[in-house]
Amino acid sequence: MNDIAVDVLIIGAGPSGCVASSYLKNNGISSKVVEKSKFPRFVIGESLLPRCMDHFEETGLLDCLMEQKFEIKAGARFLKDDIVCNFDFSKKHTPGWDYTWQVPRADFDHTLAKEIVKKGVDVSFGHEVTAVEFDENGHSTTTVKTEEGNEYKIRAKFIIDSSGYGRVLPRLLDLDKPSSLEANSAIYTHVKETERPEGVEGTLITFDVVKDEVWLWVIPFSNGNTSIGFVGPTEFIESFKGTNSEKLKEMLKISDYYYDRLKDLDFLFEPHIIKNYSKAVKQLYGKGYALTGNSAEFLDPVFSSGVTFATESGVKAAKLITKELNGEKVDWEQDYTGYIMKGVDVFRTYVSEWYTGNLQKIFFHRPENPVIKGQICAVLAGYVWDETNPFVKNHNRLVKTVAKVIDMENERAN
């Protein structure tokens, strides 16, 4: 291939790269997307949040997704012991979308990628970034290798790294740093449910808390398949012996609620294991580049924040680059890092307090407080930048405070 010159190089054709490239295309900015994988390809992160619907709508990618008729996700259910906690997105504190989808990511990502190609975005699949150099102006020269082993260079004024788990620039520029979250792992697969329960029960996304630090996800898709997986401390996952299939079969016995429904179903693929998945970086941007989605920060999947951060950061980076290329001054520290990290910090608090048990106390306390529940529901819907919500603005202390009040009530009751 011949060398290429564009305004923006986007690494990765997942949701973040697609919304970024679509926004740039809509605003007359030239881009090139390179993707190491061939689509459709399997990836985890199958539960979306309502907030990301805003991004698909804004970038002109909503209609193609609507046509796929993915399973509607109107809320989420959490189970623990005999207590059920249902969150209904229509009852959240923050105005916005009241639903999103549960999606097989291979189909979802492929739909987005096909749509940006249809819009005229230049996308190359099976192309891998192997090196990158920046000059003093932040302009870059990136070396890309094709499947056949041929190399070519892309010169760009800006790079958006949307490579997700590939974390291309964090690896090449030594930007990785340890996550502040505990070391958890996940084991997961898909099953075909030929006799799925009728009605809402068969469609509900559920988080079954089988131990304080261990939970099972069940995500039904509209194609009849269901994603299942356990998350817990790495040592817990490793305590089960045998093949990955044998491990997961044994773990399913822990779930009183789902064991009978799932025990006789064949796994559609050998379960995958991801160990110690939480990631962080030293910085979210530099001269000539921005990191988006999982390339920047990957949190625990308990609240399904992955795709929403991917699309939030992808759109935000594309907007700021468009401003800069149009001669406007951009404060990347405030307008990008400051903004994105506000949302990341809120979710990080919720993840941390989930595993301390404080958030679980609030979820499963009875009677429920509808005001508090609506405010927490807005967080779970991805509206983590809405500071009219006290559970966003005061996230650092409010979860702990409410949990402490519950403890005091329980002490008085006893």
From TrEMBL:
InterPro entries: FAD-bd (IPR002938), FAD/NAD-bd_sf (IPR036188), Flavin-dep_Halogenase_NPB (IPR050816). Pfam families: FAD_binding_3 (PF01494). One of its GO terms (molecular function) is FAD binding. Residues 6-165 form the FAD-binding domain. PANTHER family: FAD-BINDING PROTEIN, SLR1998 PROTEIN. This is Pyridine nucleotide-disulfide oxidoreductase. It comes from Aequorivita soesokkakensis. The lineage of its organism: Bacteria, Pseudomonadati, Bacteroidota, Flavobacteriia, Flavobacteriales.
